[in-house]
Amino acid sequence: MFDIKAWAEYVVEWAAKDPYGFLTTVILTLTLLFLASAILSWKLAKMTEAREKEQKKKQKRQENIAKAKRPKKD
User: Fold this and answer.
1) Which residues contact 15 (CB under 8 A, 6 or more apart)?
2) pLDDT value, residue 74
3) CA angle 53, 58, 63 (to 5 degrees)
4) DSSP conformational letter for 8
5) Which stretches does the entry tag as region Disordered (predicted)?
6) CA distances from 9 to 21, 29, 32 (A)
7) What percent of the chain shows pLDDT beyond 70?
8) How far is CA 20 from CA 15, 24, 29, 60, in A?
9) Domain positions in the chain
10) DSSP per residue over 38-61, as a string?
11) What is the per-residue pLDDT across 9-27, written as a single tens digit (0 to 9) for each?
12) Phi, psi angle pair for 73, to nearest 5°
C-alpha cells in the first residue's frame, strides 16, 4: 500500500538535496493547477451566463404568451 511517511521523508530529502529543483517543480505544478482552475472557472461563468440568458428569454416568452391570451377590452 502507499506509505505516506516514506513519501514525506522522500520529499523532505529531495527538498534538502535540491531546493531549486524542488521549488521549480512545486511552482510549475501550482501554475498548471491555477491555470486549470482559471479555465474551469471561466467555462462555468460562461455556462451560468448562457443559462441566465435562456431563463430570461423563456420568462419574456411566457409574459408575451400571457399578454396575448388576455381578453382585449374595447
Assistant:
1) 22
2) 56
3) 125
4) H
5) 51-74
6) 17, 20, 25
7) 96
8) 8, 6, 14, 59
9) 8-67
10) HHHHHHHHHHHHHHHHHHHHHHHH
11) 999 999 999 999 999 999 9
12) -95, 120
**Cβ pair 22, 14 in contact under 8 A:** yes
- Give the DSSP letter of residue 70: S
Residue with cell 467555462: 43
Look at the block and give the residue holding cell 471561466. Answer: 42
C-alpha cell belonging to residue 9: 521523508
pLDDT in tens, the chain (74 residues): 789 999 999 999 999 999 999 999 999 999 999 999 999 999 999 999 999 999 999 999 998 888 888 877 65
Q: In which residue are the cell numbers 520529499 written?
A: 11
